[in-house]
Write a sequence for this structure.
């Protein structure tokens, strides 16, 4: 079977999508030597990525979400002539009508969150949103199979597209940081809470800043907040919020962190804090568990699904609720803390990139038999 994969999100510079793409391709090379794969890659990774003999690379210069993408990707795929294409995100070209699988990671923009997370003028955003809905509708309605990372995303997808129910498969993602990196990187001398991810508005970092300030001022706790975020316009906005709230002395901002340093930051944090209003899965929380780090998260359905009772939950809309849970972690007795960490670390092992890749190949094979 000839399978094409749109792997243009490859690389940690593309955050969660990048990690998903990298791990899927790495695991496919380990478990599948029979199918022939062609990866669509940008210039950086098309030059540098080494692959197994049954994997080939094709350069695609078009940016994600661009008009050029709508034209160039179908042209490239026509030349490859695959039996099946896997689009690892929603951006399936509108005029592509050959058999394909699509991974839908979330429906955040459907809920209106996208308006808060745009740098565009309103009129441009509305045009972009119309384009997004057209592309998303096509991606979902025309797919032979739809992969989602959680039951929560499946339920959200079913509400809007009930006609695709029988084509949706939940395939959980994995976790891949290595524990032996924990002592090789620089440590932060102060006690700190950690957040890793984008600084989009729905990540709710403003409330987290308020909670850290509350702990230091009202509760007289000496604790910092380490934020690992990309270098982008949303992080620049966050810096302004930090200045506005006079919390600069409490916050350490980091970008461009490699896996070694990230592992160290997880391992030495008092807890990883995930204050989001909405997510599709929640990979950083599993990385925290794997790193023997306490997990403190929003009381939202997807986190209960993925983390179960291995996290402490707070109301993401309530500064006091968040602060009290963080205070509970600071005052937690070692015996209870270590017991919870052992349980969570064992729990995280159920999430495997290898298992994810095997389930994905099953989806490919099911379509080869149609």
């Amino acid at each position: 079977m000839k399978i094409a994969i749109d792997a243009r999100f490859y690389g940690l510079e593309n955050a969660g999508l990048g990690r998903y793409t990298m791990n899927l391709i790495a695991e496919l090379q380990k478990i599948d030597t029979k199918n022939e794969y062609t990866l669509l890659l940008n210039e950086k990774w098309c030059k540098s990525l080494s692959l197994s003999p049954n994997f080939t690379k094709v350069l695609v210069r078009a940016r994600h979400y661009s008009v050029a993408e709508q034209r160039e990707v179908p042209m490239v795929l026509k030349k490859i002539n695959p039996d099946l294409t896997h689009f690892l995100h929603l951006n399936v070209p509108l005029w592509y009508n050959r058999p394909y699988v699509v991974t839908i990671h979330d429906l955040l923009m459907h809920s209106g969150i996208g308006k808060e997370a745009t740098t565009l003028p309103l009129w441009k955003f509305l045009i972009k949103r119309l384009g997004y809905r057209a592309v998303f509708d096509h991606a979902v309605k025309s797919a032979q199979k739809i992969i989602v990372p959680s039951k929560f995303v499946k339920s959200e997808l079913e509400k809007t597209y009930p006609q695709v129910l029988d084509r949706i498969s939940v395939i959980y993602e994995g976790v891949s940081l290595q524990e032996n990196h924990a002592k090789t990187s620089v440590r932060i001398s102060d006690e700190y809470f950690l957040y890793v991810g984008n600084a989009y508005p729905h990540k709710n970092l403003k409330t987290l800043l308020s909670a850290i300030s509350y702990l230091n001022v009202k509760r007289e706790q000496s604790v910092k907040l380490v934020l690992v975020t990309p270098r982008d316009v949303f992080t620049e906005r966050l810096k302004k919020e930090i200045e506005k709230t006079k919390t600069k002395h409490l916050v350490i901002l980091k970008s461009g962190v490699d896996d070694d340093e990230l592992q160290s930051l997880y391992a030495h944090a008092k807890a990883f804090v995930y204050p989001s209003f909405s997510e599709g899965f929640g990979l950083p929380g599993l990385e925290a568990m794997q790193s023997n780090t306490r997990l403190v998260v929003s009381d939202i359905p997807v986190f209960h699904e993925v983390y179960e009772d291995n996290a402490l939950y707070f109301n993401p809309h309530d500064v006091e609720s968040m602060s009290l849970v963080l205070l509970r972690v600071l005052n937690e007795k070692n015996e209870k803390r270590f017991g919870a960490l052992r349980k969570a670390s064992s729990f995280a092992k159920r999430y495997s990139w290898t298992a994810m890749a095997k389930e994905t190949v099953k989806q490919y094979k099911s379509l080869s038999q149609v």
Remarks:
- The radius of gyration is 21 Å.
